[in-house]
Structure formats: C-alpha cells, structure tokens
Amino acid sequence: MSGAPEGFSEIKLIDPFEIHTGPVWRKDGTYAFRVTEHHCNMRGVVHGGMLMTLADMTLGGAVWDATDREPSVTLNMQTQFLKPAREGDLIEVTPELTRRTRGFVFMRGDFKVNGETVMTVQSVWKLLGKE
C-alpha cells in the first residue's frame, strides 16, 4: 500500500527539515502519514524520532489552524509509545485542542494504525509575541 488515503489531500511541507519526512495528508482535521522504509529503524519499526517529528508537524499544524495562523513554537511535548508501527502502515491522528490561554495552546493526539493507538502525545505551544 502506498499513496494518499482516499479523500485526503497532501499538505505542502515547507519547513527545511520536515520536507524530508513526508508526504503528510489531511482531511477534515485528520492527518495521515504512510510509513516507508526510510522512516524505520534497523528493527523494522518506525523510528521514535520520526514519530515525534510527525507529532510536532501535525499538532503544530492544528495549533496554526486554531490560532488563525499565529506563529508558535513547541514548548513541551510528552510522548508515550504504545505499539510499533511498520513499513506500509498508515498512521492517522486527529489533534485535539485541550486548552488555550493568551500565550499558550495545549494539544493532544492519539496516533493510530487501523484504529489501534500506537502513540499518544500531549504538547504545549508558546504563541510568539505574547506573554
């Protein structure tokens, strides 16, 4: 299996680091990512650093949307790896905004393969230019 899931559109990745990790697709607030060989470690499962990059990209994209494109940076990200994902797997997440203050946005997401959670993430984002 490869390519975009039905009904999803590819996100244009512009960050110099992130462009090497995609493609990433989106549909109605849900993000999807297909694991390929270069995302895996030598044990044949997705590298934890790749999963954390995916979390930063997708939850960050949701912050961008939730704040009407206000610039932000990742302040904190807590990741729990629950199950392995492998080459060919489609990882999906629908980020959830859990709280927003004047200067911070709190997000979470359950990253799933075939409906089973492989990773959960909670993150805090600092809105730039606000105290």
Task: Characterize the structure shown.
The protein has 131 residues and is mostly beta strands. The protein has a single domain, classed as Hotdog Thioesterase (Thiol Ester Dehydrase, Chain A, Roll), CATH 3.10.129. Helix content is 15%, strand content 40%. The protein has 1 helix and 8 strands; from the N terminus they run E-E-E-H-E-E-E-E-E. Strands 1, 2, 3, 4, 5, 6, 7 and 8 form an 8-stranded antiparallel sheet that branches. A hairpin with a 3-residue loop joins strand 6 and strand 7 (104-113). The model has no long low-confidence stretch (mean pLDDT 94).
The structural class is: mainly beta
At CATH level 2, the architecture is Roll
Oligomer description: single chain
| CATH first level | Alpha Beta
Mean model confidence by pLDDT: 94
What is the rounded Rg? 14 Å
Shape: globular
State the end-to-end CA separation: 46 Å
CATH homologous superfamily placement: Hotdog Thioesterase
SSE pattern, N- to C-terminal: EEEHEEEEE
CATH topology, by name, is Thiol Ester Dehydrase, Chain A
Given as residue ranges, the uncertain stretches (5+ residues, pLDDT < 50) are none
Number of strands: 8
The total count of helices amounts to: 1
**Count of discrete structural domains:** 1
Helix content: 10-25%
Instruction: Please outline the major beta sheet.
Output: 8 strands, antiparallel
Beta-strand content bin: 35-45%
